[in-house]
Design goal:
Helices cover 45% and strands 23% of the residues. The chain has helices at residues 2-5, 16-28, 43-54, 76-80, 84-89, 93-97, 103-114, 160-203, 222-228, 242-250, 256-266, 312-326, 336-353, 367-374, 376-393, 417-432, 457-473, and strands at residues 59-64, 69-72, 119-126, 132-143, 149-158, 207-212, 217-220, 276-279, 285-294, 301-310, 357-365, 398-404, 407-412, 435-436, 439-440, 442-450, 479-481, 488-489. The strands form four sheets. It has a six-stranded mixed sheet with strand order 12-13-11-16-17-18, sandwiched between helices. Strands 2-1-5-4-3 form a five-stranded antiparallel sheet, with helices on both faces. A five-stranded antiparallel sheet has the order 7-6-10-9-8, with helices on both faces.
Length: 490
Amino acid sequence: MAALLGAGLARAGGAGDAAEALAAALASGATALLFLGPAYRRGVAAKRLKLIAETGAGAEMAFSADGRLMWVSPAIATLSGYSADECVAAPDLINLLVDELDRGYAREQCARAMAGETGQSEMRLRHRQGAAVWVTCFWRPVRDDGGQLQMIRMSIVSDQARKTTELQLLETVAALRRAQGLSEHYLSRNRDERQRLQALLDVIELGILFVDADRRVRYANPALLRIWGFGGTGEGLLGVRDARLLAEAMAQLEAAEDYRIHVDVVQKQRGRSEPYELRLINGRRLQEVSAMVTAEGTTRSLGRLWVFEDVTEQRRASEDLLRLAERDPLTNLYNRRRFHDALESGLAGAQRGQTQIGLMMFDLDGFKPINDSLGHQTGDEVLVAVATSIRRVVRRNEQLFRVGGDEFAILIAEANELALQELAQRVVTEVAGIKIAGASISASVGYACYPDDAPSVDALVAAADSAMYRAKSAGKNCWQTCAARGRHRS
């Protein structure tokens, strides 16, 4: 089309008989018709040929050898919305008729036509109403017997119906390919996702078990087999009834019947179960949690997912941390922190039960000289020996604490005066019997009671501490009650 339109085409002459003859020549398609002799100017023949040229399905154009549009058939109005006269009068036919996207291409084709080439091309016209119209342009040069270019003939045929069909087919094919591509993509992604999930389940330390709605095993990962000591592979468990697995698990549990009851309760629940801790005969601890799996968008059960975690090391570490937080690392006695917690708890219990609680405090006489003269290692040996000895004389309702340095405390639940006096004497006697590196030690002991001697925790500690210092003032290696009683024994 660009070849037909020719850049910068100017309006040319060509009215009357010349136009008729041109039209006749275009319609005939014969080179001989270019010789516009008198025979072609005759009335009837010329009119016939003009009628043929102007009533064809496509638009016909004739350009001079220098690219001027000389004539165009009325059919151009159907293709473009512009009349033949408007096309002939246009200063630039390409800008008038051709879609902006194809103008560069049209000018290239025009240059080929002006160079004397024969050809055809597809492009888009831009209709006056704004719509794009696909056309095919055919052009060829018309030469005289001497080979001199006389004019360029161009035919323009609408291809809109064919293009529309082609585009629809292309869109359909593209849509099918996109659908196929998406299907393959999602299938590949699903396979990849499954592989990633499989790899994850294989390496995690959590035991995963899925039991379907018929109570048969559908999946078990390697960690589950390790945790429970089931032999073989996860595939070996496929299809096995959950009752069989439960029986094997119960044989390893300390409280097997409790776990069976727990499983019965959980299997009747629809949601996520609460964590449940199991103790195995071999000392290991497991934590179990499970949840029902339902079909998407429904409440229909697909089965239940069970997750087991070996928490043995976690519990040991937690107990070790608790022990470090509550116990003296040297003597392994409860420390000051645990002492205050126990004292507050004991006092609260005594208040509720309207009973008496006793607090005994004692420290070692002459401990600092032992530390200074014999060294801290000997001092530590003394403290360990004292802790060991006093542990032997305290009873079930009596708790022994090391509250700091060489100071110790004993908390006595439901205490009575006689029992306190006997305990104080046992402590004095036990400590006096300890010999380390030839050094003799003794203890000064004091005690007080709630509620007789003190109404609160702080007051009780102060009263027992005061009694202990009264024992030191009384010559050491003895015990004293609080000042209000004034008793003294050695």
